[in-house]
Structure formats: structure tokens, C-alpha cells
């Protein structure tokens, strides 16, 4: 079985759920190995072993953290040339997609982004990809070089499997050309206590229909352990921060459950959420376009529906 490299998504060694998803997919394709860039690999080792990583390649040159993504892509290209893996899996975040694209150029390989499924096919992999803002799904394979696949968060349910997760330091050289953009400052986002929007299994969003009061949306989200999202109308009105906007000019989410509250369902909003597994909408207008898309719809005032739904969920816990 060929080795499948998974780029670890972590914050100071704390491994994000998307990596467990990628390792789960990697096990279906071959022997999973993790690639850990930065410091904190010791802290991540147990979590990587828990999802079946056999080897953890540790790339810890200071340049990899001091600059934007170009050095990471360059270092990964050196590892790919050395290991000749069957595929490289990366989380389809904004940074992940940029690394994937740069890596594909450096390795002269094909790249597929926004994959929602990856299966083995012949000597390679076949992906199902979400394209045109989620309007179509396309099956695609890489026909040249090592397949570089960026997979959307929540595309697989993490399954545990024990792996050795043997740490293997890898020395890399970073060229001056890759050091074009240096990070001068970074601040962690204010903690909300809720899951990260793009990774959350459940997202509860609010739109103009909230009238600017997100308290009921937040209370319902908290009863479900969900992330909170917002439409652009809500963000543009200053009711919720831009980092929570879902849609074409916001974040793309693909949770197990998406609940849209007081959101009409404009095409630009759909672009960010229509690959969600189950979609529920609460809207007082029975003709709202969001109802064309939903699995379950509630016609009603969110100010009445959400408190009842929150009570019901809380009661059943
Ligand atoms: P509205 O369209 O005004 O809908 C509000 C809904 O709330 C209505 O359906 C109404 O019936 C319902 N409602 C009102 N009161 C209640 C109540 N008490 N209870 C229940 N329901 C109620 N939009 C995004 O969301 N994300 C994007 O990334 C994005 N990018 C864009 C990019 C471009 C280039 C452009 C041109 C637009 C973009 N938009 C985006 C904007 C998009 O076109 C819509 O204007 C926006 O999504 C509308 O937000 P909304 O559904 O909250 O508001």
C-alpha cells in the first residue's frame, strides 16, 4: 500500500478535527503518515496516533512559521520528492488551498480542491469535488504526478485506529524566493467557546430576520454545541463580525446540520452552505427561496420558534 501524506492542521500542537478526518480518509487509500509543520509535534503525537498515523514527519525550521505559506509548500515539495507518496491530503481551508496549489506547481502534479470524498481508484485516487460555489459535484482524478487533494472539513466522520505515530524529524531548506512575505504580528481570535465555524458539525446562522438581535440564535447554537454563522446582510449591518459570514464572500461551511434563521437564501449565501448534509430553515415567509433548498422548513417568527427549539433541545439532554 502506498504512503498517503496528511498535512496536520494544528495550533501550537493542538490538532484540529479536520486532521482526524483526513487521516480517516488516508487509511482507506493506503498507509497514513502525518506531516507536522512547526513546533509542538510532541503534544500532537497522541492525537495523530489515535487516528492511525504510522509516521509523523516533523518539519520544524523557523522559516516555516515566520513566513506565509510559500516556505511550507517548498518544504512539502522536498518531502514529496523524497517519499513519493500515493497522494497528499490537505484541509481545504484558505491556507490549505494555497499550499495545495503551490505544492502542485512545485511537484508538477495535478491539484483538486474542495473535495468532499476521496476513494482509491487503480493506482491513484478518485475525488468527488464541489465546484461552482457548491452548485455542482464533479468526479475528478489527477492524471499527472502525485495527487494533491484539498478536502473540505466535515467530509468524513473521524474513525479511531491506533497508529505508531513515530516522530521522524525532516530537515528542509527554504530558498530566499520563498521568504517573500513575513508574518510581523499575529493575534489569536477572541475565544467564543463555540466550535470553529468551518469545522463545526452543526452551524446555526442568523440573517436580517434577526433584526440585529442574535441572542436567540446564539442560545439555540449553544444548546446544540454549534457554531454561529451570519448572512452578509447581518454582517453589513454591523450585527455580527465578518469572520462569521457564510457565503460567496465569507466562509464556506459543510456541516452535518445547517440551520438558517431569518435568511432568505440568496445565491451568494447558498454558495457557502449548500453542501451541508441536512439544511433546516426558519423563516416567516413561506415563499422565501431558502425553502427550495431545505430538508426541513419551519414557517414562523424566529423569535417564537428558536426559544421553543432551544427549550426542547435542552430538555432532551
Ligand atoms: P434578506 O434577504 O433581507 O432576508 C431576510 C429574511 O428573513 C427574509 O426571507 C424574511 O422573510 C426573513 N425574516 C424576517 N423577519 C423574520 C422573523 N422574525 N423570523 C423569521 N424570518 C424572518 N450574502 C451572504 O449571506 N453571504 C455572502 O458571502 C454574500 N456575498 C455576496 C457577494 C456579492 C458579490 C453580492 C452582490 C452579494 C452577496 N451577498 C452575500 C448578499 C446576498 O445577495 C443577500 O443580500 C444576503 O444574503 C441577504 O441576507 P439575508 O438573507 O439575511 O437578508
TrEMBL record:
Cofactor(s) needed, names only, are:
FAD
The record's remark on the cofactor is: Binds 1 FAD per dimer.
Instruction: Offer an example of a GO molecular function term for this protein.
Output: flavin adenine dinucleotide binding
**InterPro entries reported for this sequence:** DHS-like_NAD/FAD-binding_dom (IPR029035), ETF_a/b_N (IPR014730), ETF_a/FixB (IPR001308), ETF_asu_C (IPR014731), ETF_asu_C_CS (IPR018206), Rossmann-like_a/b/a_fold (IPR014729)
Provide the assembly information.
Heterodimer of an alpha and a beta subunit.
What is the protein name given in its UniProt record?
Electron transfer flavoprotein alpha subunit
Going by the UniProt record, its keywords in alphabetical order are:
Electron transport, FAD, Flavoprotein, Transport
Q: Where does FAD bind?
A: 208, 231-232, 245-249, 262-269, 283
Q: Which organism is it from?
A: Mumia flava
Family classification? Belongs to the ETF alpha-subunit/FixB family.
Function as written in the Swiss-Prot or TrEMBL entry: The electron transfer flavoprotein serves as a specific electron acceptor for other dehydrogenases. It transfers the electrons to the main respiratory chain via ETF-ubiquinone oxidoreductase (ETF dehydrogenase).
Amino acid at each position: 500500500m502506498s504512503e498517503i501524506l496528511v498535512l496536520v492542521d494544528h495550533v501550537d500542537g493542538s490538532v484540529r478535527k479536520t486532521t482526524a478526518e483526513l487521516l480517516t480518509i488516508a487509511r482507506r487509500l493506503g498507509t497514513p503518515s502525518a506531516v507536522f509543520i512547526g513546533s509542538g509535534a510532541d503534544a500532537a503525537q497522541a492525537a495523530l496516533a489515535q487516528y492511525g498515523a504510522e509516521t509523523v514527519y516533523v518539519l520544524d525550521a523557523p522559516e516555516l512559521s515566520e513566513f506565509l505559506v510559500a516556505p511550507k509548500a517548498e518544504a512539502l515539495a522536498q518531502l514529496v520528492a523524497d517519499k513519493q507518496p500515493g497522494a497528499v491530503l490537505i484541509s481545504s481551508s484558505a491556507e490549505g488551498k494555497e499550499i495545495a496549489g503551490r505544492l502542485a506547481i512545485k511537484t508538477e502534479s495535478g491539484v483538486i480542491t474542495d473535495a468532499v470524498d476521496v476513494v482509491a481508484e487503480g493506482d491513484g485516487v478518485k475525488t468527488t469535488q464541489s465546484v461552482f460555489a457548491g452548485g455542482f459535484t464533479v468526479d475528478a482524478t489527477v492524471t499527472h504526478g502525485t495527487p494533491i487533494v484539498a478536502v473540505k472539513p466535515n467530509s468524513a466522520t473521524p474513525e479511531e485506529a491506533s497508529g505508531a505515530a513515530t516522530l521522524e524529524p525532516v530537515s528542509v531548506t527554504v530558498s530566499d524566493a520563498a521568504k517573500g512575505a513575513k508574518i510581523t504580528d499575529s493575534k489569536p481570535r477572541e475565544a467564543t467557546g463555540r466550535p470553529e465555524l468551518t469545522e463545526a458539525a452543526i452551524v446555526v446562522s442568523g440573517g436580517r430576520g434577526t433584526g440585529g438581535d442574535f441572542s436567540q440564535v446564539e442560545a439555540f447554537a449553544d444548546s446544540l454545541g454549534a457554531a454561529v454563522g451570519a448572512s452578509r446582510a447581518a454582517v453589513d449591518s454591523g450585527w455580527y463580525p465578518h469572520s462569521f459570514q457564510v457565503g460567496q464572500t465569507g466562509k464556506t461551511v459543510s456541516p452535518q446540520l445547517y440551520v438558517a434563521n431569518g435568511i432568505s437564501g440568496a445565491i451568494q449565501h447558498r454558495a457557502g452552505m449548500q453542501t451541508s448534509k441536512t439544511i433546516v430553515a426558519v423563516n416567516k415567509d413561506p415563499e422565501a427561496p431558502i425553502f427550495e433548498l431545505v430538508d426541513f422548513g419551519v414557517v414562523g417568527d424566529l423569535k417564537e420558534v428558536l426559544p421553543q427549539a432551544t427549550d426542547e433541545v435542552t430538555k432532551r439532554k
